[in-house]
UniProtKB/TrEMBL annotation:
The lineage of its organism: Bacteria, Pseudomonadati, Bacteroidota, Bacteroidia, Marinilabiliales. Pfam families: Methyltransf_33. This is Dimethylhistidine N-methyltransferase. PANTHER family: ERGOTHIONEINE BIOSYNTHESIS PROTEIN 1 (PTHR43397:SF1). The keyword Secreted does not apply.
Length: 319
């Protein structure tokens, strides 16, 4: 009798993506423990301006930010989707905690290791702070946030994570955000803004090779977890920026015609010479589009917090 393969979500999505024409892989799978570590390296390099911008926004405008989170020092829950190492959020956590505001921090991340180290870190840095980390896909974890809790929420979605979504995914995400928030709840969303293409391309194609390593880690992950036989030598990393749409796209492109076996899928995939595999969208926005997204999903845009170069915006919306 033929045995049906029991496939993990990664396996199912990989099968779907590599069977499609054109081929693609999903960017959420970049963040295994190795990929999360490489992304930390990306955030530490000067070319990746996004992190520095948000760092500046939080450092210089923490008083104004706290004022909009909590009117008169009222209590609230700070939920963060895709918290990572929390390096930027920590600036605010220290500030809010030191002001004596009663609040809890609920970080949600897809990497268990990243979550564990953030929790350990905060325990040492801010022993009095109540931290309740959750590990999982933030789409799913968001769903679990009850809509009937009486404590007001401020939900962070920083670092231009929203840039990874297609238009449809953005609408779905903001729709859910809207559904799982109550009137008066707030969201703070980080958007990378349109700017010089040279500046943008350098952030995603850096001289240190971190971006390249980050994209290639997806293939290594498939080799590790799905017993795939990808040879990184068979591909080149390429990224493009379209100044009209604001779409930065990452690709792996086959350098030679070849086959790659994936044991867990019991299948061989064929790659033509110069066939692209679409790996990631990192969309750049303009302020008009951001305002439109807010109103389209039932939010009122309260204030835009930008850095001194106007490279990046943390947009605060209220339900
Ligand atoms: C974590 C999604 C914000 O799109 O800028 C960095 C990921 N990809 N370099 C981004 C990423 C390549 C990053 N986000």
């Amino acid at each position: 009798m033929e045995q049906k393969l029991l496939l993990s979500q990664l396996a199912t999505d990989t099968l779907k993506g590599l069977s499609a024409n054109p081929k693609y892989l999903l960017s959420k799978y970049f963040y295994d423990d190795m990929g999360s570590a490489i992304f930390q390296d990306i955030m530490h390099m000067p070319e990746y301006y996004l992190t520095n911008c948000e760092h500046e926004i939080f450092s210089k405008q923490k008083n104004e930010l706290l004022k909009v989170f909590s009117n008169n020092g009222d209590t609230f829950n700070l939920v963060e989707l895709g918290s990572g190492d929390g390096s930027k959020t920590k600036i605010l956590l220290h500030h809010i905690f030191n002001k004596g505001v009663d609040f809890q921090y609920l970080p949600i991340d897809i990497s268990q290791k990243t979550n564990d180290s953030l929790a350990a870190n905060l325990k040492a840095e801010l022993p009095g702070l109540i931290v309740k980390p959750k590990t999982g896909d933030y789409f799913n974890e968001l769903q679990k946030l009850t809509s009937d809790d009486s404590i007001p929420k401020v939900i962070f979605f920083l670092g231009s994570n929203i840039g990874n979504f297609s238009n449809e995914e953005t609408a779905e995400f903001l729709g859910r955000l809207s559904a799982y928030t109550n009137s008066g709840d707030k969201v703070l969303i980080g958007f990378d803004l349109k700017k010089s293409p040279t500046v943008i391309l350098k952030a995603y194609n850096d001289p240190h090779g971190h971006s390249r390593r980050f994209i290639f880690n997806h293939l290594h992950r498939l080799n590790r977890e799905l017993d795939a036989a990808f040879d990184p030598q068979d591909f080149v990393h390429h990224c493009t920026y379209n100044p009209e749409s604001g779409e930065l796209k990452n690709y792996l492109i086959a350098k030679t015609e070849h086959n790659a076996q994936i044991d867990a899928l019991e299948q061989v995939f064929h790659f033509e010479k110069w066939e692209p595999v679409f790996m990631e969208l990192s969309r750049k926005f303009d302020l008009e589009t951001i305002g439109q997204l807010a109103t389209d999903h039932g939010f009122e845009q309260i204030r835009n917090f930008t850095d001194s170069r106007n490279y990046f915006v943390d947009s605060l919306w209220e339900r």
